[in-house]
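Notes from the 1:1 (GR / supervisor)

We went over the backlog. Supervisor wanted to see one worked example end to end before approving the batch request, so GR pasted a single chain during the call. The sequence is below; no edits were made to it. Supervisor asked that the structure be written out right there so they could see what the output format looks like.
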Amino acid sequence: MQACNPGLQIGTTLLQVLNKPQHIPPPIGISRKGDTIVTSSPRLIILAGLFNLAIALGIGRFAYTALLPAMQATFPFSDTIAGSLASMNNVGYLVGTILCQKKMPEKWKIRVFRLALIVCVGSTIAVGMTEQIVQWQSLRLVGGIASGILFVLGSALVVDSVQKHLLPYATLMYCGVGLGIALSGALTPVFINYAGVMDAWIGLGIVCIPMAAYCWIVLNPPTSNSEPLIQTRTPQTKVDKSRFFPWFVAAYFLEAFGYISSATFIVSFLQGAANGVSGTTPWIITGLAAALSIPIVSLCLRQLSALKILVAMYGIQCIGILLPVYFQSATCAIVGAILFGGTFMGIAAQSIYIGTTLYPDRRQWIIGILASAYGGGQIFGPMATGIIADHVGGFVPALILSAASVALGGMLLVIGGFRSKGFQANAIV
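Structure output shown during the call:
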């Protein structure tokens, strides 16, 4: 069985790039072949992939960050409970990515994908229809499972469907995560001001419906005469894998622990900070930076080694977390958002790329190990942060712990790189 995490499909697609019966009237650029909707435009498919990730992660998963301060103001509950709500969604996400790794017929793949679309949007709307914490936790768990399924199956449908000469552009669908974050961050204050926080959940779910409908129509299993995807060339590596891998996995766990802790509570922290900026504004900037990070990292990989870029991103993310903590100004909050948003998706992508490069013949095993490490960090991070915030009465110590976790992860990468000769020229790529 194979697991997945938010960087699995990104890393796999980057590896390829670097190595070179619904009766619905089809929209422009899409035709019908028998009982199947077939698109003649890969760009429409990639756009559907972008919408899919905006629904699954940008809104389905990360809208909670923007809504959390208003939820706690309306229904006073502890930061420990807030952390548990985030962790339940992360548990569900990990379960979803594991469940959909089992091979299934193409007709079942699209059915499961469409069912997950309904569940993801429906669970988001349903959160706004109840005021019970136990029901919130259940809905966030179910929504997390649906998000994991959407990520894996939706990304696979896109990559399998585009022609090989357009495969490099398929990575653009991962910009949907950041764009979804930015969209939810921009709409949340509007919905809250006019209707309240619970109606904001409903409103964000309704916003997802047109995007879900587009994905429902456009994303289909590739036809039998689809052009085959480009074959990947196995990169050469001179790294002592047995020396590098334990440090690499430990660093990835610490990154997941640190990034998700900050991503869950940063809006709540900024909401109460005297920096003259709304908590949702940096969160919108975080999303836009995350969207831009995918093409930027792809360009950097043409000039620098993957491991050096990865270490640099750990350091940059640590600075991005700490800036608004130690410097109470709007400028630092915005710069911190750019640094944080511009690295968390790139780190996940680079880690999967390096792992599959080191073990090209054991891809399923390496992805399973990395997914477990990342998933564990994401589950425990929000829980620990919420408990610490309740105990000390604020988020500063918890965010410092978050940054320390990322910094320690970067240090482990450096140690592993030197012990395994990973920093030598072309040692990994």
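Supervisor's comment: Residues 51 and 258 are 27 Å apart (CA to CA).
Batch request approved.
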